TrEMBL record:
InterPro entries: Clp_protease_adapter_ClpF (IPR053189), Hemimethylated_DNA-bd_dom (IPR011722), Hemimethylated_DNA-bd_sf (IPR036623). SMART domains: YccV-like. Residues 6-105 form the Hemimethylated DNA-binding domain. It comes from Rubricella aquisinus. Pfam families: YccV-like. PANTHER family: HEMIMETHYLATED DNA-BINDING DOMAIN-CONTAINING PROTEIN. This is Heat shock protein HspQ. One of its GO terms (molecular function) is DNA binding. Keywords: Stress response. SUPFAM superfamilies: YccV-like. It comes from the Bacteria.
Length: 109
């Protein structure tokens, strides 16, 4: 029997990578790894996370660029800086930032 972990983070939450210097907004969650073998094999073996954990799609940014990242739960931490994410696609999917979480577009109450 396969046990599916409950995701620790939710859509709209602002997170940061545990090791690499980037942060982002969660816009989708896979309950377990759901990417290509090519992507998986591109990660150095000593850093490869377990496939049987939630993986997060992020609108990510670092000091020089914006991109979409796919990150395992074990490599994420909640970002408590309160700073907004400047990624240009955040505004297409989300509204305002409240308590380290973006409100999904259309849910402005």
């Amino acid at each position: 029997m396969t046990v599916i972990a409950t995701p620790k983070y939710a859509i709209g939450q602002v997170v940061r990578h545990r090791i690499h210097p980037f942060r982002g907004v969660v816009f989708d969650i896979d309950p377990v790894f759901d990417n290509t073998d090519e992507w998986w094999n591109s990660i150095p073996e000593e850093h490869r996370p377990s496939k049987d954990q939630p993986f997060y799609h992020l609108f990510a940014e670092n000091e020089t660029s914006y991109y979409v990242a796919y990150v395992s739960e074990q490599n994420l931490l909640l970002d408590t800086s309160g700073d907004p994410i400047d990624h240009p696609e955040v505004g297409e999917m989300f509204g305002e930032l409240r308590d380290q979480k973006y409100v999904p577009a259309g849910q402005f109450h």
